[in-house]
């Protein structure tokens, strides 16, 4: 039985986000209240296939004990590289492989990967088949409704479903829409019908504007045929979003201190500046939060950040 058959109904997933859902942040969320399933940040299959890029690719694929079960997400546009990478993932502790056919990043799209695969459906299918034929792990797909028009889902999703992926995550926006418009929840019934008609064995996951567990359960009550829900930006508003718990200021500060500790433990994964993007998650919505966050943003090291927190007497 593969991982997709072991999950509860509905199941919740932390969306893979570049520069966010690395081995450090996944441990933070696991501590606050883990989802049913984690995904890694995406890894470029061509980087893995090259002698020069393999070390970096493997670094991105490192997992912690609290990550399990976890899916490795990969991207690219070279079918042979998908095959090579998917095969290698079997021995790295992952429960499945997910193909990213939805990332809207312009650099990824210029390279022909992510959402650009929507414009090359035959190549997308070839990449999927190469991955499936090279691994015993279940292979899933994450994508968007289309490139520029939401109506594109009526031809794009059937192309993917005809391959009977283990799971299909649909971000309910197009690449052109990015996150500038509300997710197209009105299309969920049609997407359910397509899945049920073409590939009823495929788990259907909805992504886009889902705030927290309560919101996911509300949507599931309306659309019980949807198997799972993926939360992305909602985790920035509340790192406890996979639970029904409302965190206290003290609990958020403890998560921040844990984040600093893990940053030191995994020294070299990222530079200090990107770490500052996480401060707003923990230092928010309490008296003096704005001023404290401003002081933290002026720091240049974990040592300095700890000193600011100590002086704040939290």
Overview of the molecule:
The structure is a single chain. This protein has 314 residues and is an alpha/beta fold. It has two domains: 3-237, Aldolase class I (TIM Barrel, Alpha-Beta Barrel); 249-312. It is built from 16 helices and nine strands. The chain has helices at 3-6, 23-33, 45-49, 54-60, 79-89, 106-110, 121-132, 153-161, 188-198, 213-222, 234-237, 249-265, 272-275, 279-282, 289-297, 302-312, and strands at 11-14, 37-39, 43-44, 70-75, 96-101, 139-144, 167-171, 203-207, 228-231. The protein has an eight-stranded parallel β-barrel with strand order 1-2-4-5-6-7-8-9, surrounded by five helices. Helix 2 links the parallel strand 1 and strand 2. The longest helix is centred in the C-terminal third of the chain and has 17 residues, at 249-265. The chain is globular. The termini are far apart. The mean pLDDT is 95.
CATH class of the largest domain: Alpha Beta
Write the CATH architecture name of the largest domain: Alpha-Beta Barrel
CATH-level-4 superfamily name of the largest domain: Aldolase class I
Major sheet: arrangement of strands? 1-2-4-5-6-7-8-9
Number of strands: 9
Averaged pLDDT, please? 95
The number of helical segments is 16
What class would the helix/strand composition place it in? alpha/beta
Poorly predicted residue ranges? none
Helix content: 40-55%
Alpha-carbon distance between the two ends: 47 Å
The backbone outline, from C-alpha atoms, is: globular
Classify the fold: give the CATH topology of the largest domain.
Answer: TIM Barrel
Largest sheet: 8 strands, parallel, barrel
Task: Please tell me the total number of domains.
Answer: 2
What letter string, H or E per element, gives the SSE order?
A: HEHEEHHEHEHHEHEHEHEHHHHHH
